[in-house]
Amino acid sequence: MRIEAGSYLYQSGQAASAATASSALFAAAQDVQPVASGSSSGISKTDFTAMTRQQLFDWMNSQIRSGAMSLDESTPFLGMTLKIDAQTMQPVDMASDTTLVNFMDNARQGIAGALWRGDQDSAARLQAALDTMQRYQGQVTGVDITA
Q1: 3-state helix, strand, coil in the chain (%, to 5)
Q2: What is the pLDDT of residues 58-71, one digit of tens each?
Q3: Beta carbons of 104 and 137 less than 8 angstroms apart
Q4: Please, which residues have CB within 8 angstroms of residue 55's CB and are 6 or more apart in sequence?
Q5: Distance (Å, rounded) from C-alpha 5 to C-alpha 13?
Q6: What is the 3-state secondary structure (H, E, C) of 86-142?
Q7: Which one of 27, 47, 54, 132 has the lowest number of neighbouring Cβ atoms within 10 Å?
């Protein structure tokens, strides 16, 4: 069974509240046993230092859906999900790109570049995105319980 943070849990045919879902996620995380392989605890955590563009996009969308992030606040995150192939000058499909990216480092480099160009607005947006990533870094996003 997989429990996703921010999703609704169904109990007796009724959707549970977000608070109940959070409580259930916390309780499940306390009781989780390692997956059969022993290499993983079964707990998914947000890691902006090693994440695919699709994972960042999915995280960003979940934040927007939950109301934790506005569309305006999502703009720098959306920009970080874009990738153009240098040879073909075509966008690279994020669904098939498994490259892990350090988005926190990318944001820091973007801030430095924006300040060098004198673009205070972009620097402020990227700083806000970096602050958000630092706040959510390591947060439990799901528990995979294998029986």
Answers
A1: 50, 15, 40
A2: 999 999 999 999 99
A3: yes
A4: none
A5: 19
A6: CCCCCECCCCCCCCCECHHHHHHHHHHHHHHHCCHHHHHHHHHHHHHHHHHCCCEEE
A7: 27
